[in-house]
Specification:
CATH topology of the largest domain: Trna Endonuclease, Chain: A, domain 1
Helix content: 25-40%
Distance between the termini: 55 Å
Number of helices: 9
Number of domains: 2
CATH architecture of the largest domain: 3-Layer(aba) Sandwich
Oligomer: single chain
Order of helices and strands: HEHEEEHEEEHHHEEEHEEEHH
Number of strands: 13
CATH class of the largest domain: Alpha Beta
Strand content: 25-35%
């Protein structure tokens, strides 16, 4: 793809670390950095857990450092590029912007409004109130805004992970999960390996689920998988699951449809009509006009 799988900008990395710290501490939600963020304009997604259990709901996120730019009301200003706005709007993604202010030590947040984006030109200046500080009091607002509709969550998951799906393509990736506990297992420490010689992706998940299959369906609904090797248990404490993961056929069809919709309609010549001897039998002539409600021999013709 020619793009890094994760951010290398130290400012954005610092913002991601700060936001993750708050969500883990105040919400007990888990953050996953989005693979190849430059394509979707999204930097991360946070898994909205309920008492540590997976719900399948998640919050798409754009992150950055707070700049010194303010409006007359003292709101922080953050630029959002047009191609990001278009992508989010075309896929009906509810995206929240988070800014880390190193001087104050606070994380600020604001939803991206679904305005008619034509009026913003090439980018939108999003105003983020200085009072919108990320802490436990913001939880209710997130829970009320993020959809719980299964079909919408499925579409959102495809849109957020599109670049990762494209990167895997028709190949096979390796997912390695660690599992702790028996009665209510916790799955975490996910490693994703795409190619030999390429750095693995690490996701610091700590999520309860009844079983790994339930979790894979909720977090990676575009994937189908099988076990690459038997489950290994270490000291009767940690079980390691090594999976061979592919993009399911329906998701590959989704990627193909997305490419078609984003490209100009292909230039195609008019299909040729089969040659005819110009002779139409009387029976066919009569049937033709009857099918149009015109008696044979009538001079009336429908426009």
């Amino acid at each position: 793809m020619g793009l890094n799988a994760a951010h290398t900008d130290p400012d954005i990395c610092a913002a991601i670390d700060a936001v993750e710290k708050v969500f883990v501490r105040d919400f007990n939600w888990r953050l996953r950095r989005v693979s190849y963020p430059h394509e979707s304009g999204l930097d991360a997604r946070v898994e909205m857990l309920e008492d540590g259990w997976s719900t399948g709901r998640f919050l798409p996120m754009r992150l950055g450092l707070a700049s010194s730019a303010r409006d007359d009301s003292g709101n922080y200003l953050h630029q959002v590029e047009r191609h990001c706005l278009d992508y989010w709007a075309s896929h009906s993604l509810s995206v929240c912007v988070f800014l880390f202010d190193p001087e104050r030590g606070d994380v600020l947040w604001q939803w991206v409004q679904r305005e008619p984006y034509d009026k913003f030109g090439q980018e939108q200046l999003l105003a983020i109130p200085a009072s919108n500080i990320l802490d436990a009091s913001a939880r209710l607002g997130f829970e009320e805004t993020v959809s719980s509709d299964p079909q919408k969550l499925l579409r959102s998951a495809f849109a957020v992970d599109r670049a990762l799906m494209e990167r895997i393509g028709d190949q096979t990736a390796i997912f390695i999960w660690d599992e702790w506990g028996d009665t209510s297992p916790i799955f975490g420490n996910l490693r994703i390996i795409l190619d030999e010689g390429e750095p693995e992706m690490r996701i610091d998940y700590r999520i309860r689920a009844h079983n790994l299959h339930e979790l894979m369906i909720q977090l990676f609904p575009w994937a189908c998988y099988s076990y690459a090797e038997p489950i290994k248990e270490y000291s009767n404490e940690i079980a390691v699951h090594v999976l061979e993961v592919e993009v399911r056929p329906e998701a590959l069809a989704y990627l193909e449809a997305e490419e078609f919709l984003e490209a100009d309609y292909p230039e195609e010549p008019d299909p040729p009509s089969p040659e005819t001897d110009d002779h139409i039998p009387p029976e066919e002539e009569a049937a033709f006009w009857r099918s149009r409600g015109v008696p044979r021999g009538s001079n009336r013709r429908e426009n």
